[in-house]
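Database export, one record per block. Field names are fixed; values are copied verbatim from the stored entry.
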Amino acid sequence: MEILKSLAVILIPAAIVTAAVEPDLAEVRGRLPNGKFALVRLQFKKGVVVDSKELPKTFATKKGSLPQWLPYEDLTTEGKRWTLKALFPKDEWNKDGIKHSVRWPKLESVWLLSTLFTGYGQHYDKLMDANPNKPELFKEGDIWLIPKILLSPEFGGAAKAPDRSQPEDELSDEARTAAFRAMLSYEKDSKGDYAAYKLRKSETLYYSVVMRYTDLVDAKEVNQLANIIAKRSDIDDVRSIQPGQLIKIPLEYLTDPFMPEGSKGLAEERQMRAEVRRTAKIEAGPRLSGVRIVLDPGHGGIDSGARANGVWESDFVYDITMRVRRLLEFNTEAQVSTTLRYEGIGFGIRNSIPSMTKNAVLLTTPPKPNDGESAISTSVNLRWVLANHFFTRPKAADSRKTIFISFHADSLHPSSRGSMVYVPASNLVPSKFTWSGDGTHVSELRYGASVSFTARQKLESEARSHIFAEGLLKILDQEGLPIHANRPIRNAINRSGKSFIPAVIRTNMAMTKVLIEVVNLQNEEDAVLLKAPDFRERYAEAVVKAIRTHFKNA
């Protein structure tokens, strides 16, 4: 059925009256086919609901008693079409698709449009491809094209559920990385050397090429590199990419595991993998006897960290950290320390986090207010100095029983979701380093500010950290918690053309040290998860289970 014909039923009763507009809510009255009116609400980051009181029975998929506010996804095709016309009366529906006119710029998003019109928010990147050069910050009257092929079948389109599953998803990290590498061939043309990749069904340049084969994760840089690769691959229109399309990735953008044979990066990757295979686990018993654990809640106080979709990083990862601390203290004999404390909250957990907590101190002697986590901040260095003090005063009986975990939430390309874990690349860890303190006077500087590592120690630490990361991700997957689909374990971050390790794990004396990005706040599904106390509790339980597994000989 053509779109115009299928819409005829809603074009007649098109009188729409705006009832209310608030900062986080728009509400309109739409005339129903039976002549009555029904309210439609669009709420910030919560989607669309319809007042069911006067709705025709043919508008609801459920029978019997209905809730007052019926979610958009519980409407029939007829009900959805009517709802969209009520919310967006200026939209033009034609045989080629829909020209959407932004009406509520503070409430609408690319993800919302994908959800409403294509049926899946994960089609975000395809909708972006269909609207090149369109800013994601909407303005009233902006026109967005939703091509017919992207429309859900009920609107006359051909959109299908995005297929994120691939055969390699069930493999170990090493086997998965090898499978991804096997998909590349190394070629040369008049423009130089490149890695050749043939795009598979449902894959995109952003998600399946840039975020897999490079260390880029920042949304802006991912988009920029996708455009560079498209140009290098002689792709004039990213909307025209089909399965089987040859993608040419310039070698300088590849991360170590995917570099050509003979490269230094690939050699270092293989050295680390060999170390992982020969590294024996350390037994600590079910009570984690002799294990020292330092938990580091990222950001805090004046530093909110990442913010997106109505969620901010600091308070929510602090709550996960406190839940991990509680479980460890109640159920194990491990020595547990924390780098940060929220004044007024202490080490308690919270089910409701209504606003940002402004006061947080690092637990140095004396305590110091957290001043942020930029490269030039004092606090970012005091975190690892404090952790080193905990590990050395008194000195751990077995340094292999030391573990440091820093909790964060990322801000990546919105098509990405789930946990990622960063471990320290041995080639980026300094052999010697001393931090002067920059005028800061805390007693921990005496024992924690100077470090030295042998090449053997750096390699073993990366291997043990990698083993813990893989164990954690396996448990998260078993518990039904989302993990990053391409390369969820990484040993470096690449931003602005530079590769680096986060400071808290770069000069940290723990044998096992990781930085966990719990979710991607730019992904609306992930943001909703992080706000839920049940998710935060399940995540904490998974982390504790991973720690137990790490110190258990199976």
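Remark 1: The chain is about 30% helix and 20% strand.
Remark 2: Residues 385 and 448 are 5 Å apart (CA to CA).
End of record.
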